[in-house]
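Table S2 (continued). Query chain:
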Amino acid sequence: MQRFYFDHNATTPVSPEVLEVLLPALLEVYGNASSIHQDGQLARQKLELARIQTASLLHCDPKEVVFVSGGTEADNLAILGTVRSHPAARKHVITTAIEHPAVLNPCRALEREGVDVTYVPVGSSGVVDPTEIRRAMRPETVLISVMHANNELGTIQPIHQISSIAREAGSLLHVDGVQAAGKIAIDVKALGVDLYSISGHKLYAPKGIGALYVKNGTSLSPIQFGGKHERERRPGTENVPGAVALGAAAVRAAARLTAESLRLSCLRDRLENGILARVASAGVNGARSHRTPNTTNIYFDDLAGEALVISLDLKGFAVSSGSACSSGAVEPSHVLIAIGLPRERARASLRFSLGQSNNEEQVDALISAVAESVAQLRKLSPTYTASV
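Corresponding output:
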């Protein structure tokens, strides 16, 4: 059976162009970048070239790029590192109800340390209102953390407006850009952010590498302790092959951004419209405008999302339900609940996220598979039977 992958927001395959530079780096660049001999200096050269390449995607100074293990570490370092280093006796942090757990859980950790945190709600569009951010501001607000693009809905947040609010108040702004990098244009200077997180495995580099942009002059304490790597912001021997791969992925993403965004948005709309035309009692969650070009989140009433994921998987399609399993109990997505979906509709929602390998033929095959699977599952649903 042929398999088709429609879960690129979860992770992407390593692209051939990235693999082409990754393999030689693994085999030949084995020196420690902190060593002064030739092997170490070769590793240092490769590391710094990757830093320049990564900085070019973000439009920042290479010295402002800190290599880390991925998006989760980047978010943790940004949030914990800035708040803990702030000298104020009373501290307040603002974030939103639709953030990734890599942001929400560090915020909860800060609450246990005595920091006040406000979780700003969002409306049905899945986009935070900057007015709500302004309303949540306090004199002691030291950090605002808002994602650039939502991982489940694809909705793009109004970072420009929020950065203006942060600047007026003298607060720092961290943006989780994990789902934005490689999909939409990013200019951290134009956005006015102080910290920005990205992850390699979301833009066709391998897992285990990411980066955090830290604006020059931003106070940031390390959250791990060891050597003086990455200008004393992130200790540990640098993952040079991973950084080389991330740099190559950044160059690749920048070169293809305009054309690939247009291609994916056309495929996404074809998928979305095709499903809605063939499946009754279905609809799109969140705003259909101003979102990443590859993502759609669709509800299918009167069935369980996990069952539909399994049915599609058996037909050769990888998609995501957006639900998380905690202590053996399946809970609906906190993002979908936050935008006001009833719990049953949230459980009946699927995320489709497209990428470089997808084409029209695959999209059309997925539309047919979704229609067939939904029809099969609804025949087994007493709720759906009672409503027809």
